[in-house]
Write a structure and sequence with these properties.
The complex is a heterodimer of chains A (110) and B (114). The model of chain A has no long low-confidence stretch (mean pLDDT 93). Chain A is mainly β and 110 residues long. In chain A, the strands form 2 sheets. A 5-stranded mixed sheet of chain A has the order 1-9-8-3-4, with no helix packed on it. Chain A has a 4-stranded antiparallel sheet with strand order 2-7-6-5, with no helix packed on it. In chain B, the strands form 2 sheets. In chain B, strands 2, 4, 5, 6, 9, 10 and 11 form a 7-stranded mixed sheet that branches. In chain B, strands 1-3-8-7 form a 4-stranded antiparallel sheet, with no helix packed on it. Chain B has 114 residues and is mostly beta strands. The chains are: A mainly beta (110), B mainly beta (114). At the A-B interface, β4 of A face β4, β5, β9 and β10 of B.
Chain lengths: 110, 114
């Protein structure tokens, strides 16, 4: 599975959009981009995933560049409860483990 | 209310004792997983099962055992052979959707060896 690079930490004002970037320059054609988040002492929460098209669900939007070498997770109106570590994971195939890197620690401030 | 449940939330064990962590899902997912998380680190795969009565070792299976007798249940036993069992244990299950499988996690069990 391809390696990902994310900023260590980011701040966001409550009510504003949070844009979390992820670089995955070695991604291959059949690999998906997944986003999870983990609030302290809780299990990781699935947010969204995509292959090459932009995706949106009730939690967030995922924007994948045309060359698929990077992506951005967008939380449209961040709240204090969105404070967490956000993980970008690139994964292909079916089954097997998820590889969580260091992630981005997002702090939403009032 | 569908989801993945893990019990107990906190577990204390004396050194040398075996302990079993419960994981149940009512999502009708075929595959289930056990991960371990240590402070400030990522998740490491212990065991996984893609169908009932079958399971495979992950990266750190030594000192652990599992069973998969029912689709909805995947208990993990931490044996006395596990040298450093204090950790946060996470269970997940997955379903194949649109060509890929998405894993969903339970709330975790924090095991402390005294």
């Amino acid at each position: 599975d391809a390696k990902t690079t994310q900023p260590t930490s980011m701040d966001c004002a409550e009510g504003r959009a949070a844009n979390l970037p992820c670089n995955h320059s070695t991604i291959s054609g059949n690999e998906y981009v997944y986003w999870y988040r983990q609030i302290h002492s809780q299990g990781p929460q699935y947010i969204i995933h995509g292959l090459k098209n932009n995706e949106t669900n009730e939690m967030a939007s995922l924007i994948i560049t045309e060359d698929r070498k990077s992506s951005t997770l967008i939380l449209p109106h961040a709240t204090l409860r969105d404070t967490a570590v956000y993980y970008c994971i690139v994964r292909g195939g079916l089954g097997g483990k998820l590889i969580f890197g260091q992630g981005t620690e997002l702090s939403v401030k009032p | 209310d569908g989801g993945i449940t893990q019990s107990p939330k906190y577990l204390f064990r004396k050194e040398g004792q075996n302990v079993t962590l419960s994981c149940e899902q009512n999502l009708n997912h075929d595959a289930m997983y056990w991960y371990r998380q240590d402070p400030g680190q990522g998740l490491r795969l212990i065991y996984y099962s893609q169908i009932v009565n079958d399971f495979q070792k992950g990266d750190i299976a030594e000192g652990y055992s599992v069973s998969r007798e029912k689709k909805e249940s995947f208990p993990l036993t931490v044996t006395s052979a596990q040298k450093n069992p204090t950790a946060f244990y996470l269970c997940a299950s997955s379903i194949v959707e649109q060509g890929t499988d998405t894993q969903y996690f339970g709330p975790g069990t924090r095991l402390t060896v005294l």
